[in-house]
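Pilot study result, target chain (308 residues):
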Amino acid sequence: MKRIKVFAPASIANLGCGFDIMGMALDEVGDVLEMTLDEDGKGISIVNETDVPLPADPEDNVITPVLRKFFALTGKTGRVDVRVLKKIFPGSGIGSSAASSAAAAFGINELFGAPLGEEDVVVCAMEGENLASGGYHADNAAPAVMGGITLIRGYEPLDIIKLPVPGNLYCPVIHPHLTVSTKQARSILPKEIPMHTAVTQWGNVGGLVAGLCSGNIELVGRSMRDAVAEPFRKQFIPGFDELRAKLLGAGALAMNISGSGPSVFALASRSDIAQRVGAIMERHFAQQGILSETYVVKVSNKGARLIA
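Predicted structure:
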């Protein structure tokens, strides 16, 4: 019998212009799983020890397809018992399903002596994302496994590039108690976009990557703009344009929707600015009678990892 405890971080997907291809890991916030392996047994059990509602049937939990993908890739067998000790609330827009999927993928790989490389661990985690949202996307899964800021250059085959994270990059993120499903947020997007919109988006992606590689966080801020999804998705977030104006006026480098929402994130170059921006976010939603949780953390270079 082998037992480990694993943490995987929350994450922000898209980063504005990087729809489905970019994401970043957040410090401190995430999921914790305890995983036990019996190599002589068979089966999967999942016990939820948090106050976050999760599916009672293991077949409906994102952890199950992740573990099965690992067994399929490696030919390994065994019984895995999982206890969920800490959980991001589903639908919060900060990578709840990806955190569980990444923790499970990293943990099962560690229990068997790490036969898979980091990119294949992401492949396993993507199985959980597919169950959660109906698509094989790595914009949350990759940073949750690998940490930092990741770029998915291609999916066929999967090609993940880890980008440098400037040391003075802070991320206030707020989860307003609104319901926005990933499928709903995808369904309102146009099937085709005009050429001038595509050119704008390509320029922003290039600027964002260049800013991260050069450490130019002002360039990062002005490139983190979304011409494709945000114009349609911001309708789900009350006062979105007003909030952005407040945050930029308070010194934020940028503000965008986190993934498909409803969470909203900003970037700041200093801790005091990040704290001020977080407080403005809280007031914005409180004034509309909307409850929320706010996190003010640094962008993390650490992904999924052992904690015991």
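One observation from the pilot: The chain has a mean pLDDT of 94. A full batch analysis is planned for the follow-on phase.
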